[in-house]
Amino acid sequence: MGSSVIVVQYDPDWVRLFGKLQDFVLPVLSDLVLTIEHVGSTSVPGLAAKPIVDMDVVVSTQADVHTAIQRLATLGYVHEGDLGTSGREAFIPPDNVPWHHLYVCTVETAEYKRHILFRDYLRSHPEDSKMYGFLKLELAQRFHNDRAAYTNAKSEFVNEILKRTGWK
User: Fold this and answer.
1) Which of 74, 102, 114, 126 is 20 to 30 A from 165 via CA?
2) CA–CA dist 52, 98 (Å, integer)
3) Which Pfam families does the UniProt record give (predicted)?
4) What whole-number distance in Å separates Cα of residue 89 and Cα of residue 83?
């Protein structure tokens, strides 16, 4: 079953929250990081989303990934492993910051490239973004208590958008 699915209308505070979270992790990662990207639906202006900020911390090498894991632990992040997505390391945030999803990966990681392609496409195609938002709101009602079914039901739309970006 999984936890309930809640999708809400876009909130401009998500951008500010991303900035605060970025500022929180940057002091321990600044010499490693190539970029920290706000990804996922909260990063697309106007898009309905689950109210959880997603951030990709991007580094150069796998050795940098391991260093980042150790340094994030000093802030209270708990490393969860790749959660089934190769090349992307996931973390549980510390109790003293708002809940969010933080991932560390290298710039060559397929999941990172997919995140950026999808985000940038939706940012530059407001009609498709609006359709995606309507779909997510409808699916969140239909699959309120089944996160896996919700995710599976959006995959056709997501894959169609990725195809338009040239993603293989």
Assistant:
1) 102
2) 9
3) GrpB (PF04229)
4) 8
pLDDT at 1: 40
Strands 100-106 and 88-92: antiparallel
Q: How far apart are the C-alpha atoms of 49 and 110, rounded to whole Å? A: 23
Q: In total, how many domains does the chain have? A: 1
**Count of C-beta atoms within a 10 Å radius of residue 113:** 14
> Which domain does 107 fall in, by range?
13-164
Phi-psi region of 11 (alpha: psi -120 to 50; beta: other; left: phi over 0): beta
Q: Return the residue matching tokens 């779909």.
A: 135
CATH number of the domain residue 154 falls in: 3.30.460.10
Q: Which two tokens stand for residue 152?
A: 């599976």
Please choose, from the candidates 124, 129, 150, the residue with its C-alpha nearest in 3D space to the C-alpha of residue 139. Answer: 150
Whether 147 contacts 139, CB under 8 Å: no
Query: Which candidate, 107, 20, 21, 25, places its Cα nearest to that of 73?
Result: 25
Tell me which amino acid residue 49 is. A
Q: pTM here? A: 0.93
Angstrom CA distances, 106 to 6, 51, 83, 118, 155, stand at 30, 26, 16, 18, 24
With tokens 């969860």, the residue in question is 80
CA angle 70, 75, 78 (to 5 degrees): 60
What is the model's pLDDT at position 168?
Answer: 76
